[in-house]
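Bench notes, bay 3.
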Amino acid sequence: MPAGSEGDPHVPDLVPLAEVVRSGFTESVHYGSAVALAPDGAVAVARGAIGAPVLPRSSAKPFQALACLLSGADLGGPGLAIAAGSHTGQDLHVRLVADILAGAGLGFDALGCPEDWPEDEATRHALIRAGLAASRERMNCSGKHAAMLAASVASGWETASYLDAGHPLQRRVRAVTEELSGERAAHVAVDGCGAPLFGLSLTGLARAARALVVAEPGTPPRAVADAMREHPEYVGGTGHVNTTLMRALPGALVKGGAEGVLVVALATGHAAAVKVIDGSPRATSAIALAVLGAAGGDVAPAAAFASVPVLGGGLPVGEIHALEEE
């Protein structure tokens, strides 16, 4: 447990999950919690406070996308993938967001997410060179927001208040999240994009992601999982870990969230959820793969993600890797 947290009722029991090693010296340690589920959904690996609530951040997007689908949004394939994704703001993403909105008779001005620059560096630089400004459609959550608006229009709900926690769509998001996770929302917050966010335990988060990949083919939950796995470029984008890790692990659903959250569900029914308490995402993939492997999941094709190089003078001088359970 981090120094100073002993006896503090507001700090859950945390464990060291990953370390940063530079030139043979342990420079930093990431504490947090991680859980892995067996194919039958039982907890197979438990590290830290897996029952304590966390805010899933963008790891909740697949559940929000499912709620939109159930509310009548005309989403499928890439459109459903971007609804569940955190895109990098490239032109292909913006075109798809525009198409989803146009199908609902809306434009970019209906989006309630904040203006932002695209995460994709090349696209961002191109926009700056062209003298353009940050915009709502380039924000990584605009796909989700477009889907929420499309669902509201399809169901005949007001669009101006679609981000209110009491809006019918957000009530459905909560119900879907609670059903998939098997637990009541522990806390209601506002996410960085302005949408309501429902707190879950790590076990509940892993359980919810697993429910999508093991759902019967042709059902709405399975449609979300299939869209994400078939179109990973819309779940993230060029160089994005959600995209690259799904391509490395065919059949896996991967969704990261801000503040050190990551959920991974394999086609076999293995699933993992990670929360790094300092909020850094740099070790989350390595940690998730480590606990999935310990639970019996086949993560060998993603061996390249098991560590992150630590650079010195532009050359590798160490690595960030997951720690084994003591």
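Next record in the batch:
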Amino acid sequence: MKPRKPFTPLRRWSLAHRKGMRTFDAWPATVRGMVWMVLGGVMFSLLNTIARELTLHLDVYQSQFLRYLFGLLVILPWIYRDGWRAYMPVNMVGQFWRGGVHTLGLILWFTALPKIPLADMTAIGFTGPIFIMIGAAWFLGEPMRKDRWIAAIIGFAGVLVVVLPKMSGEGGWYNLVMLASSPVFAASFLITKALTRYEKPGVIVLWQALTVTVLSLPMALPHWQTPTPMQWLGFAATGLLGTLAHYCLTRAFAMADISATQSLRFLDLVWASLLGWLVFGDVPSQSTWLGAFVILWATVWIAHRESRRKITVSD
């Protein structure tokens, strides 16, 4: 009789992890896609907090380049382990189209990032899900069910409850620049959804990092400043967070209709409010709590509706 292996904390964690993954895999595909979307939103909120601080001290286009350069470096160990052939895309042209469109959105977003107040930026950024839902119906042929529109509209109303009392009107034309980035990012995410039909999530994330890094380099060089050690550490953190966030979004798009996940984008306001409180000491106002409650209600409602719907999307 073979001796039993000792039940170490590492083995206990491994067993719990496998059990948790089996439970997660048993959930409907749309609900799992929603979970991936929420995880991506948390990481993007952390990323945006660090990126805004960096752009206050360094050129915005240099910040854009270094953020994606470090994102590319994060992926290199996986390429070394699996071999470069595992990351060759099926549709090379589609990868460059996606990278070019996303780079354009980043140029607009980074240009406006240090110039407008955080509340204004948040309000403008939440127009993105509306553009995505319209594009999903027009270009991807996704069914635009009534409950998805209701959840998106209620979530957007919750955002307005939080943001409108704080709108300062500062920033001038930079508000329009930030607004212009929303439909461009929506187009990028729609291309991502189309690519997930035949590309692996890791391939999409790698080629986005590669194309954006290459396309951003010419804009970064003219006003280059050597970052401080803490700024280098900040860019390394943005690279890691950005790579993980885009991987989560890609997994979400592969599992569920892109329109089904958009109401969860409004949860980002909750994470941003918590980060502002923890990092900068900004105490959430009554309007923030009320808006957060509305957003959470819409999120739980649509998740419940989607979990009861018959799933036809393949994993």
